[in-house]
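User:
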Amino acid sequence: MLQCLTSGSCGRLVQTHRSTWYFAFLVLGYVLYLIFGAVVFSSVELPYEDLLRQELRDVKTRFLQENQCLSDARLERFLEKALEASNYGVSVLNNASANWNWDFTSALFFASTAFCIIYSVMGIPFTLLFLTAVVQRIMVFSTRRPVMYIHTQWGLSKSSVAIVHAAVLATTAISCFFLIPAAIFSALEDDWNFLESFYFCFISLSTIGLGDYVPGEGSNQRFRQLYKVGITVYLLLGLVVMLVVLETFSAQAAEEDVLLKKQKPQDRLAILEHDQLSFTTTVVATPSYEDKTRHFLGDPVLTSPGGDDPMIQ
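Assistant: Predicted structure:
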């Protein structure tokens, strides 16, 4: 090992397979990231799950003691049936029997957020095509024209205007589609606080969609159908706005990249031309050693010994 380090062969090996080493470090970092997330979630969620198990076990034991005519096996069968119905969205509670999970508005809400296998074959490409077409048209009025107007009318740098515009657009989107809706959901949903409502907004608009929080499922939800339609419209508009913001930042990054690629060859060419011009000017303007000597001594002039005597001439 020491001979490998001293000879420098290890360094040459690393330089030769640099991309492979980068990929190996990337895989290792991703695995460590997953392990770290598993440890964090397990340490946070496992104590609460254990507490719920203990409470449920105590409630079941107390219920059987108070109702000795009911056997443990019959209670188990009833709970299995109730849980099976609950997984499908049907509750055994009396105050929840009037709510239907697959009426028209609920089906519309499902169709706009999650797709079955057959439905997704046509739904997802069509949705992406629709969102792309909408975003491309909105970008003209929300990004390109405002940036160009400020750039031409006020004489500011286009890159600076684009950066400020992207920051303002992102701040507006976060306020209008994350913070304000989170406050509204926390007021309308009885079991949600502001953090849970913000979590639902982020999960939904980032297209992660875990499904652990679904609005409008409360037993005492007023105007449930209208509420579902409003959530559907909110999600569609939110997806469009998120795509507009991402496209704005992507266009800005691409423009900066193109600008840098254009500037670098021009700068190098300008430097070379400047150096060549300076060198040419120096060569032309600076006299040679022979010219200096000739100017100092002067050209020899042949004169006759007799001066201007015409006879000698």
